[in-house]
């Protein structure tokens, strides 16, 4: 697939967005509806057997079904699923913003209120997803996008798994879908998993937001795996002393090696994080121009108008006066 290719007689490829374990993501233009979309094609590794190809294709189809049946403002909407020249593709909402990983890299440790504002939005998404028996299994900073208006979107359910016991597991013994940076100990071992692997990953993201550092890091993958399985995390307050005790306690509980010692539900995490959300802002402040990403905005100015029309209106108002 190349730039300018036309897929399914309607999706014009514009440029490459990124590559992942399950496929390639392209920015495309839907010529039927006149909008940009994210088009994900399934990667086919060279030399795989027909059985492996069929299994990967089934996993890709299941991804589309898993995401399409979810409904939450913090998720990217699924628009279409198809196949073109033996290439399976998934068409989704194109989300513009900065990734959480990039924001931490640029800003360093984030303020407590901002960490809570981002964390509760992720917890809200996870609560909705888990209620429908789906886990993400690859939640990490590069899969979380913060729009300019502060709305957080959780992306890439490419390794999502149904928890329905009647559905055959597609992951073979020994496989580790996802990346190590936010992977729970039980997942690194290939053990049966449930929604609590996502809560562990959320703990990793909170830790990273609060300290600017990952929970564990090592040049050797084997050593990193050992740290994830055996080593307790450095308490975040030892890296940043203004973290509230209750917030540190929540983060360390989410990072428990034993999933039974983690919070049981994303709703509990949401409730505990909400204590550090910002207070409601003055209404007139919602009508002033802004250009920076502001994760506090959904809470300081809930249901405020979108960024672009507000800026245009405010600029016209300023010129008249």
UniProtKB/TrEMBL annotation:
<keyword id="KW-0547">Nucleotide-binding</keyword>
<dbReference type="InterPro" id="IPR017441">
    <property type="entry name" value="Protein_kinase_ATP_BS"/>
</dbReference>
<feature type="domain" description="Protein kinase">
    <location>
        <begin position="11"/>
        <end position="277"/>
    </location>
</feature>
<keyword id="KW-0418">Kinase</keyword>
<dbReference type="InterPro" id="IPR008271">
    <property type="entry name" value="Ser/Thr_kinase_AS"/>
</dbReference>
<dbReference type="Pfam" id="PF00069">
    <property type="entry name" value="Pkinase"/>
</dbReference>
<dbReference type="InterPro" id="IPR000719">
    <property type="entry name" value="Prot_kinase_dom"/>
</dbReference>
<feature type="binding site">
    <location>
        <position position="40"/>
    </location>
    <ligand>
        <name>ATP</name>
    </ligand>
</feature>
<keyword id="KW-0067">ATP-binding</keyword>
<keyword id="KW-0808">Transferase</keyword>
<dbReference type="InterPro" id="IPR011009">
    <property type="entry name" value="Kinase-like_dom_sf"/>
</dbReference>
<keyword id="KW-0723">Serine/threonine-protein kinase</keyword>
<protein>
    <recommendedName>
        <fullName>non-specific serine/threonine protein kinase</fullName>
        <ecNumber>2.7.11.1</ecNumber>
    </recommendedName>
</protein>
């Amino acid at each position: 697939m190349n730039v300018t290719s036309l897929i399914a007689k309607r999706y014009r490829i514009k440029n490459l967005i990124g590559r992942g374990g399950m496929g390639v993501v392209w920015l495309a233009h839907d010529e039927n509806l006149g909008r940009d979309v994210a088009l994900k094609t399934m990667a086919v590794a060279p030399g795989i057997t027909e059985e492996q190809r069929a299994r990967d294709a089934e996993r890709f189809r299941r991804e589309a079904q898993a995401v399409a049946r979810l409904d939450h403002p913090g998720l990217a909407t699924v628009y279409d699923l198809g196949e073109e020249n033996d290439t399976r593709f998934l068409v989704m909402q194109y989300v513009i913003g900065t990734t959480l990983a990039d924001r931490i890299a640029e800003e360093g440790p984030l303020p407590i209120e901002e960490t809570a504002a981002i964390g509760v939005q992720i917890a809200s998404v996870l609560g909705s997803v888990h209620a429908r028996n789906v886990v993400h299994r690859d939640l990490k900073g590069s899969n979380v996008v913060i729009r300019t208006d502060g709305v957080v979107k959780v992306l890439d359910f490419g390794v999502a798994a149904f928890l329905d016991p009647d559905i055959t597991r597609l992951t073979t013994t020994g496989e580790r879908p996802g990346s190590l940076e936010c992977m729970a100990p039980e997942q690194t071992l290939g053990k049966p998993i449930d929604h609590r692997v996502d809560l562990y990953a959320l703990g990793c993201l909170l830790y990273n937001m609060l300290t600017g550092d990952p929970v564990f890091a090592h040049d050797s993958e084997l050593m990193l795996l050992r740290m994830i399985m055996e080593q307790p995390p450095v308490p975040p307050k030892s890296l940043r002393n203004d973290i509230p005790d209750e917030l540190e306690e929540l983060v360390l509980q989410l990072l428990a090696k034993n999933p039974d010692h983690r919070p049981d539900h994303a709703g509990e995490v949401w409730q505990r994080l909400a204590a550090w959300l910002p207070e409601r802002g003055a209404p007139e402040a919602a009508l002033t121009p802004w250009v920076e990403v502001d994760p506090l905005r959904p809470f300081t100015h809930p249901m405020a108008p979108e960024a672009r029309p507000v800026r245009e209106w405010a600029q016209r108002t300023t010129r008249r006066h």
